[in-house]
Amino acid sequence: MHATEREEAILAALERSGFVSYRDLEASLDASPATIRRDLSRLEEAGLLRRVHGGAKAAGDDTRADGQPLALQGTPFDKSIALHLAAKRAIGKAAAALCQPGEGVIIDGGTTTYQMCDHLAGKGLQVLTNSLHIVNALLPQDGTQLLVPSGTIFREQNIILAPGGEHSMPSFFASKAFIGAAAVSPRAIFQADAVLVASQRRFLEIAEEVILLVDSSKFAGQSGAIVCPLDRIDRVITDKGADPTMLEALAKAGVRQIDLVDT
């Protein structure tokens, strides 16, 4: 079993129960204790779990060690919304145009995906989202059906996440998932917080096509924890300010289509 396969198995076990023991990992992975310790170290460094006595537990928790509510890393929504706004609006409009009437879609929380909302009226969509900002924007639209996962509300982003590793998504399969990222490199997309990573990975599991919405400022290289490699992204929508070298790297990594919008 390769390292990537072992890591996926470890994270899957944590998602089911929130804790996994060294003994269980040795039995299920058919790997040596030293190999498992290295796997857990890598995942802990990426912010995807915490090693504890006897094993590992899911990275998220409802409180910090000092008893204060857990807060997400990254720029709060109300500060991020005004950054690169013209580009985000153009990207959101282009993304909304891809939605077909009556389609089931996922719209991940974020200030770029949020810009889709004004352009979705009249399409009769089923929308799964973890963003209360997006819920509030879509509620006035007659015919738009809304679903949300269970979990904790993080006020910085006004987003619903399940930090304990539980599988919190409703029974839903989307033809398209629209997601954002904190950063994009030639090999992967990143988020600033491990809890966001876990949520986006669950969205990827239940979507046929994954569409990444990022303005050109996000092509600054590696930052944060890896959500997925670029070959899991089917389409990228960005603005014409994107670095041509980076766009070439996206195509070489397996992204099938790249849309550049005017701002």
Outline the structure in words:
Keywords: DNA-binding, Transcription, Transcription regulation. Residues 3-58 form the HTH deoR-type domain. This is DeoR family transcriptional regulator. This protein is α/β, with parallel strands linked by helices and 263 residues long. The chain folds into 2 domains: 3-58, Arc Repressor Mutant, subunit A (Orthogonal Bundle), CATH 1.10.10.10; 77-261, Rossmann fold, CATH 3.40.50.1360. The protein is 31% helix and 24% strand. It has helices spanning 3-17, 22-29, 33-45, 77-80, 85-96, 132-138, 194-205, 244-253, and strands at residues 19-21, 49-52, 55-58, 104-107, 126-129, 145-147, 152-154, 159-161, 174-179, 183-184, 188-191, 207-213, 225-229, 235-239, 257-261. Strand 10 (183-184) and strand 11 (188-191) form a beta hairpin. The longest helix is centred in the first third of the chain and has 15 residues, at 3-17. Residues 61-69 have low confidence and may be disordered.
